[in-house]
Amino acid sequence: MAARVCTLVMIALAALADAIPAESSRTVAMDGLQFVPALLTVKRGDEVRWVNNDLVAHTVTLRGVFDSGTIAPGKSWSQVMQRAGRYNYVCTLHPTMKAVLVVE
Q1: What is the spatial distance between Cα 81 and Cα 47, in angstroms, rounded to a whole number?
Q2: DSSP state letter for 58
Q3: Is residue 92 very low, low, confident or very high in pLDDT (cuts 50, 70, 90)?
Q4: Greatest CA span in the chain, whole angstroms?
Q5: Are 80 and 16 in contact (CB under 8 A)?
Q6: Phi, psi values for residue 6, rounded to 5°
Q7: So what's the pLDDT on residue 25?
Q8: What pLDDT is recorded for position 6?
Q9: In this predicted model, what pLDDT tens digit does every residue of 23-81 receive, in sequence order?
Q10: What integer pLDDT is reported at residue 68 of this predicted model?
Q11: For residue 15, what is the enclosing H or E element?
């Protein structure tokens, strides 16, 4: 009986570990054909969520590092940032939409 309870507890703990969110979550809005904020600093392990508040689709793209694909109006895309660095990203559909993400 004790072994069974122990097994159930371990299964529950494993499920909780998978459900633990990133260290912190930050949001960038796509609004008025801009990334807001245009400069965001986060910690390694933080999740960054881009939310499209515009009436047109956007992307969050840094070639070779990350690419959201097309994000429809009202939708979002998230990325957990694992590597420290300065990331200059764009919307490939609207190349004047540029922003910087700094990961410490």
Answers
A1: 6
A2: B
A3: very high
A4: 64
A5: no
A6: -60, -45
A7: 85
A8: 43
A9: 578 999 999 999 999 999 999 999 999 999 999 999 999 999 999 999 999 999 999 99
A10: 97
A11: helix 2-19
Task: At 6, list the tokens.
Answer: 């122990």
* Type of residue found at 33: L
Which amino acid, residue 48? V
Residue 37, preceding peptide bond in cis (omega within 30° of 0)? yes
DSSP letters spanning 64-100: TTEE---B-TT-EEEEE--S-EEEEEEETTEEEEEEE
Q: Give me 90's structure tokens.
A: 């764009």
**CA atoms of 46 and 94, how far apart (whole Å):** 26
Does 39 or 13 have the greater pLDDT score? Answer: 39
Structure tokens at 43: 């910690």
**Are residues 103 and 84 in contact, defined by beta-carbon separation less than 8 angstroms?**
yes
Q: Which amino acid is at 90?
A: V
Tokens standing for residue 56? 């047109």
DSSP 2: H
